[in-house]
Every structure is written in C-alpha cells, then in structure tokens.
Amino acid sequence: MGCYPKGPEYVEDLDVVYTTHDPGYDFGSKGSYARPDQIVVDIKDGAPVYMKDAFAVPILAAIDANMAELGYDLVDIEDDPDLILTPAGITSTTYFYSYWYDWWYGGYWGWYYPPYYTISSYTTGSMIMVIAQADTSDLPSDQAPAVWIGVGNGLVSGAYDLSRITKAIDQAFAQSPYLKTN
Amino acid sequence: MKKIFIISAICLFAVGALSAQSKTSLTYSFGFTTGDLHDYIGKVSFRGITFDYRKMVNPNIGVGFTLGWNVFYEAKAYGTYTFENTSLTGKHYRYSNHFPMIAAATYYLKPEDDINPFFGMGVGTIYTLRNTDVNLYTFEQDAWNFALVPEAGIIYRAGDAASITVSAKYNQGFKAGNELSTSQSFVSLNVGFAFIK
C-alpha cells in the first residue's frame, strides 16, 4: 500500500545483533570454555576457508575479553572445558557451519540447532557464535544442543569493518547477562 | 420473553424506518497513542480512516457501527528488544495496526440546526496487529481487545445532503490475550464528510 510507512532506507539500518539461549540451561555452574584458533568463513571442496588473521585475531580477542568478563577461563580443548564456543563468518553459504564444527572436533561430536532457532535465520554476511555444552555423557547422543547463539547480521559481507564486528560481539554478550558464571 | 424481544425489535426497526434517516460518514483519522501503546510508539499517526453508520431511531438518537483502521509507525534508534528467550539489538521499525469494530449509539443535541453537536458511546473490539522489524526479522503480535469508544463531535450542515463532521474518539482497548498483554489505546481525531439521508 502506498501510504504504508516506510522501513529501513540504508543498509546500515539493517545492522542487528541477535542472541538466543536455552532458558533452562545453568550457565552459572560453568567456568571454562574452549574455542578454535581460527574463524572459518566458508567450506570449499570439503576444506574450510579461514578468515585472515588480521581480522580473526582481534575478533577472537574480543570474544575472549567478553568471556573473561563473564567469568570464564579459556582452556585447551584437551582440558575438559565446560563449554565449546565456535565462531564463524558466513560469507556465501548458510549451511556449512555444522560441517565446520564436525571438522574441527574430529567429526565424532557436534551440536545441533535448538528447537527455538532456525537455520534460515542466518543470512549471508553474518558473524555467528555458538556455545554448546562440551560434556555429552548425560545426553542421549554425542551431539549437544546449542545453548547460546549470537549472530551479527550484515557485518562480514564485502569490506570487513572490524570495529562494527567487535562492536556487535560486545553487544551480543552485553545483552546476554545470563551467561555470567558464579 | 422471546415475543417481547421480537416485538421490541420490530418496533425499533419500524421507528427507524419511519424516521427514514441515517447518517453515514467517512473520515480521515489522525491518531494519538496513549498509555502502553504510547510507550511502544510515541509518534502521531497521520494514517487512518473511519467509517461510521448510524440509523436514526428518533431525531436525536442514532445507533449503528464504526469500522476503522489506524496505523502507527515509528523508527526507533538502535536499541535492544527482548522477546521471550531472544534479544535483538538494532534499529527498530515499529508498526501498530488497529482495526476498531464497534457497535455504537450517538446522541445528537440539535438535529435541526446547521451545527449539530453530538456525543456517543461504542462497545466492541479492536483488532491489534503489531510488528517490530529489526533487520530481516519481524516479531508479530496480535490481540483482539475488548473496546469502549466514547466519542464527541459536531456535524456542520454544508448542503442538503452532505455535511462536514469533526469528532474525537477515545479508543480504549483493554488488555487481552497472551501475545500483547498490555492495553492498546489511542485517541483519534476524525475529519470528513457525513451524508444524511
């Protein structure tokens, strides 16, 4: 309808930080996490394509700073972390992310999308962070549900704007106070 | 009892038919949010339309209905919006559509004069459809609000059949449903034409 009010006019107006979590999950009892050393941006011919270090290093540093602020210790994957945090940038496809996780973790373990989140919510250019429980011994399968998902839309496409990405990461954690450990 | 009701209804209809008058108006409707709705969207709406029909049961009293549509819109600055277990931060585009469907009775003070003040009361429902858009996401919530709509205004007789009407309605939509648990109320200022038969 012609007289219906307008929505966004500029692409910057579409920047958004989306977070969702499992409200029944007790983050307060957790204290450590592990993460990959690189950020994948695509899968080509079965192999991951990584974000350049010039961008990945400050992005990972921003994530670590926020996790430290919430009370978590970054540990090696071999040191029985409570949580696994996997960051990724989605530059072209929307479905590679779970493959990336499997690849990183040896293909025998992974996470699945929780019922309150749909993969269609990912759009090209998203920066995504997923937290899943590392210990699957009390779960029916070796796959753990994602208990927290943070997405910054529209940030990774085209020219990387590092300050926009780190700002979005800070915002994702700021709007998720329930992540804080005891 | 049933017979009395039927006879009363026939009499009422007959009176209406004998007086052979009705007032129909189509008005442009400005909207001003109040209460909880004002917290969601503070801006005045210049998008609205209202259709009123009153069958005159005597020269002073008309009964009929009101149908309308008012849409409020505001682009909010970068902010965080939390909905159940999901939070979205970004620029918000907020839309609130309201569709009053009201049975109404109106009392006209000076039906023979060129300037005819009136007041009335309506009872019915307002269907509210709210969309909060952030990026490609939209949170949609709706409710059927029980509504009371008091009204006051004037009709100015501009010619034999057409008149100009100006009125103010307070659309009080009470709390309803789970999705939109707050009241949805606004004042509408209606300006348009009335056709008197």
Strand and helix layout:
The complex is a heterodimer of chains A (about 180) and B (about 200).
Chain A: E1 16-21, E2 32-34, E3 40-44, E4 47-50, H1 53-69, E5 73-74, E6 83-90, H2 97-104, E7 110-112, E8 126-133, E9 143-153, H3 162-174
Parallel strand pairs in A: 2-5, 2-6, 7-9
Antiparallel strand pairs in A: 1-9, 3-4, 6-8, 8-9
Helix pairs in contact in A: 1-3
Chain B: H1 2-19, E1 22-34, H2 35-40, E2 48-56, E3 61-83, E4 86-108, E5 115-134, E6 137-157, E7 162-173, E8 184-196
Antiparallel strand pairs in B: 1-2, 1-8, 2-3, 3-4, 4-5, 5-6, 6-7, 7-8
Can you describe what's shown?
The complex is a heterodimer of chains A (182) and B (197). Chain A has helices at 53-69, 97-104, 162-174; strands spanning 16-21, 32-34, 40-44, 47-50, 73-74, 83-90, 110-112, 126-133, 143-153. With 182 residues, chain A is an alpha/beta fold. In chain A, strands 1, 2, 5, 6, 7, 8 and 9 form a 7-stranded mixed sheet that branches. The radius of gyration of chain A is 17 Å and the shape is globular. Helix content of chain B is 12%, strand content 68%. In chain B, strand 3 (61-83) and strand 4 (86-108) form a beta hairpin. Chain B is elongated and about 60 Å long. In chain B, 36% of the residues are buried. The model of chain B is unreliable at 1-20 (pLDDT under 50). Classes of the chains: A alpha/beta (182), B mainly beta (197). The interface between A and B is medium-sized, with 24 and 20 residues.
